[in-house]
Amino acid sequence: MSTAMERPLPRVMYVVAPLVLGVLVVVIWQGFWSARNVPDFFMPSPAHIWTELREQHGLITSATVHTGWNALRGLVIGTLLALVAALVANALRFVREMLAPIVLAASVVPIAALAPVLNGLFNQRFNTGRVIVAAVAVGVPVYINVLRGLAQVKPVHRDLMHSYSVSALTRIRTVTLPTALPYLFTGLRIGSSLAVISALVAEYVGGPRQGLAAVITENAKNGQYALSWAGIVGSIALGLLFYLVTFAMERWFNRHTSA
Fold it and tell me: Are 130 and 78 in contact (CB under 8 A)?
């Protein structure tokens, strides 16, 4: 006999529950600020942040688009390169062994250390270094997950393709990639958030001052803490957008492949 704890929640609850929690956090935050009269340099109230978001929506939107464009390019480039590398590594063992220490090194290198190096290698007027930082951050989880997915192809399927003398491209298109796609989407969901974080961190260490990092740091220095927090809200919204888009892509794929 199943208990109430084992029953699946209605789908609407997966949307309503986080929204209710978010509203509750904002209400408690506003209530605490009003009761304690917390100074803005420590933590501005949600009402002050909302006011800045409304009055400076053009600035926040422009900065969010700038950071988002860098993150998106890094996400696409990192995903494509990682996908190709995983396919080659799966086919050639020596490539897989050769890439293993490189991927390990890329996974542990601090973004804050890599960003100034790459920004210094390229023209500071452009965003090339930031895009590369985002691509490196995205490539690691995508590569690892896709390589794991490629290893899930059953030997009987490989043997069947071989017995029919199917070309390598056809094997990849009909067997290998479909098996690895769920793992690819897992890597994408992880990489989508990392792309935004990496692009944002890279903005702190040089390059054009048009992104969200500039809004956050410059306004904090000038004592406009509510506007600085409005930039933080913009970065949170951007990260959620990237994650939700990749999640929606995964749901669409799963629905159409299971139909």
Answer: no
Tens digit of each residue's pLDDT (9 = 90 or more) over 177-227: 777 888 999 999 999 999 999 999 998 887 778 899 999 999 999 989 999
d(CA 194, CA 137): 6
Are 71 and 199 a contacting pair, CB within 8 Å? yes
Residue 121 has which token pair?
A: 């290698």
pLDDT, tens digit (0-9, with 9 covering 90-100), for 134-175: 999 999 999 999 999 888 876 665 656 666 566 666 676 667
Task: Indicate the DSSP class of residue 125.
Answer: T
Q: Is this prediction's pTM over 0.90?
A: no
- Which domains are present in the chain? 53-258 (1.10.3720.10)
| CA angle, residues 237, 191, 17, in degrees to nearest 5 | 45
Residue entry with tokens 């390229």: 122
